[in-house]
Structure formats: structure tokens, C-alpha cells
Amino acid sequence: MNELVALLNKVDDSYFDFVSAMLHYAEKKESRQIQLLEFLKSHPDAKSSDVVRFVSEQPDFYEDAALLKRA
């Protein structure tokens, strides 16, 4: 997770809430962490909006929201 934190903080227009949200998403499943790491490594010039778009397009993105609705 340390590597992910470092890469998220290196995003050119990174900010606290962005890093926090991406970490919250990634901590739910190891596969999310791996995919996000791979995206950041292969897109070193990505902006925060690019990362948010990538995460929001993942098939499991809405799983967390669905769980909240049931609670």
C-alpha cells in the first residue's frame, strides 16, 4: 500500500481527498490495489481526473455503493 500512496501523491494535481478516496477504494480488494498500481505505473503523466475515471470505469466500482444501500 505504501507504493500506491507514493504514486497517488506523485500525481501532478494530487490532493488529500483524491488520495484518500483512491486508497479507500483500493483497500477493499487486493485486485483493486494491483489494477490501480498498474494504471499509475503505465500512465505516469495521468491527472487526478484520469485516475478517477479509470477507477469509476472498473466493473466492481459500484459494489461499495450497493452495499451501502442495503445497510
The H-and-E topology, N to C, reads as: HHHHH
Q: What Rg do the Cα atoms give?
A: 12 Å
Number of helices: 5
The major pleated sheet works out as: none
Helical residue percent band: over 70%
Quick one: how many beta strands? Answer: 0
Overall morphology: globular
Structural features, described:
- 70% of the residues lie in helices and 0% in strands.
- The protein has 71 residues and is an all-alpha fold.
- Helix 1 runs antiparallel to helix 2 and helix 1 packs parallel to helix 3.
- The radius of gyration is 12 Å and the shape is globular.
Helices, strands, pairings?
Blueprint: H1 2-10, H2 16-26, H3 30-42, H4 48-56, H5 63-70
Task: Please tag this protein with its features.
single chain, 71 residues, mainly alpha, 0% strand
Can you give me a brief rundown of this structure?
This protein is mostly helical and 71 residues long. The protein contains 5 helices and no strands.
